[in-house]
Structures are given as C-alpha cells and as structure tokens.
Specification:
The chain has one domain: TolB, C-terminal domain (Neuraminidase). It is 0% helix and 46% strand. The chain is globular, with a radius of gyration of 16 Å.
C-alpha cells in the first residue's frame, strides 16, 4: 500500500490489521536513510520504497530494517516490488517503463516494458506474473520477452491494484473514486465500492497521480486502501 497521503514524505508506517495499531518504521529527520517514500512493495524478506519526488527506489531488509541499497537517478518511480530472486521491479512514470534491477548493487537493468502511458502501480498474481496500472486507463499483464497484454481498458485513472484469494484483480479507479473488481480471464468487472475519499488532484507542477492510491487484499478477502483525501486507511470486508 502507499506510504501515506498528503505529506507522505514524513515517514513510512506499518499497520497491524488485527489490532489496528500503527507503528513507525522510518521517520524523516529521525532516520537519515529514508528517501521520501510514496509507495511500498513487500516480499517475504524485503520491502522496497519508491519515491518519484527524489527519483529513488530504496530496498530494505525486513528483519533488521537495514537499507540494502538505494537506486538513484530514476525518472519518477511510482512503485517497486522486491522479487523472490533478489531483484527489484519498478515503474518509471517519466520514462514510460517497467524495469527489473538485479545483481550487485542492482546495477543490471532489464526493461520489461516500454512505451507505456503512465505506468503506476504493480501487482503479482498467484503464479508470479506481474501486472501494471497505466494512468491512460489500462491494466496490463507483463509478458516475458513480449509486448504487454491488455487485461482491462477504459478505466478512470487506475492506480493501486491487488489480487484477491479467488484470483480476481481489485483496482482503484481514482478519477471515478471507486474500487473495481476485474476478472482477468474474461475482463468482466463490477464495482466493489464507490464515492470513496480518493483521487485528490496534485498541486500545480506535480505529476497527475501525486500520491498514488494503494490497494491490498488480505487472506480473508478483506480489501484495504489508502485514502489521500482524508489521510486514512480503510478496510472493506468481503460479502462473498
């Protein structure tokens, strides 16, 4: 999920969904290694923080909270996911690409997709396939060695996305202020919830997504999303 909403650069927090307790992981001015995070991706052993504001992706060890490496000089990275093989995959809004960085100091860069119209948030399905939301209104599945496949189009500024335990994809359509569930096989979709406190416009000169809306789904099917309009995190319980 995203690191926060208005003013997310002040810190990165984690939420215990069982107790609803919020704990600081990093905080600006207290932790000098923090690179103004706007989004977070998580694996079993690491998490990655992306910041379009500083053009960085920061990879952190979950066990000891030690920064393993920070990638600098990126073109507005909007999301990053640490992979099981030790690499990290990230989107660059300014370059229109999705890239995998691997090897010592993540120096080896492989472009997985290019020519995208505003790549924003990433998600993995149960088989490990990567999906990306595109500001122009699409969700794409990345195809190794080939062009991305369109999963859904005509969406209203899709940002955060996450898979449910039953295999569908939940997408935050921020321009419509709703969460939409998509069957990735058929393309069928339904509205999960609407009139949500998301989709705050960026300040003049800022990227259109500004603070991207994050989405996550728990093992019980509960949907969590971050809300930039009221600086909140919400849970929607499944009605299946």
């Amino acid at each position: 999920m995203t690191a926060g909403s208005p003013g997310p650069w002040f810190g990165f927090r984690e939420v215990d969904t069982a107790s609803s307790q919020v704990r600081d992981v990093f905080r600006m001015q207290r932790d000098p290694a923090l690179e103004y995070p706007f989004a977070v991706g998580v694996s079993a052993s690491r998490f990655a923080l992306a910041s379009w504001f500083t053009g960085t992706v920061q990879v952190v060890d979950r066990a000891n909270r030690r920064t393993l490496h920070t990638l600098h000089g990126l073109k507005a990275p909007y999301d990053a996911i640490p992979m099981d093989d030790g690499s990290v995959v990230y989107t660059e809004l300014g370059a229109g690409t999705v890239t995998r960085a691997s090897g010592p100091d993540f120096a080896q860069r492989t472009v997985l997709a290019s020519g995208l119209q505003g790549p924003l948030q990433l998600a993995r399905d149960a088989a490990g396939q990567l999906y990306v939301s595109e500001a122009a209104g699409r969700v794409l599945r990345l195809v190794p060695g080939g062009a991305p496949a369109t999963v859904a189009s005509g969406l209203a500024m899709p940002e955060g996305l996450a898979f449910t335990p039953w295999g569908s994809l939940v997408v935050a359509e921020t321009a419509a202020r709703r969460l939409t569930e998509i069957d990735v096989a058929s393309g069928n979709r339904r509205t999960v919830a609407d009139d949500l406190p998301i989709g705050m416009a960026g300040s003049p000169g800022m990227p259109p997504p500004y603070v991207p809306t994050g989405v996550a789904v728990g093992e019980d099917g509960s949907i969590y999303y971050s809300a930039d309009r009221d600086n909140g995190i919400y849970r929607i319980r499944p009605a299946r």
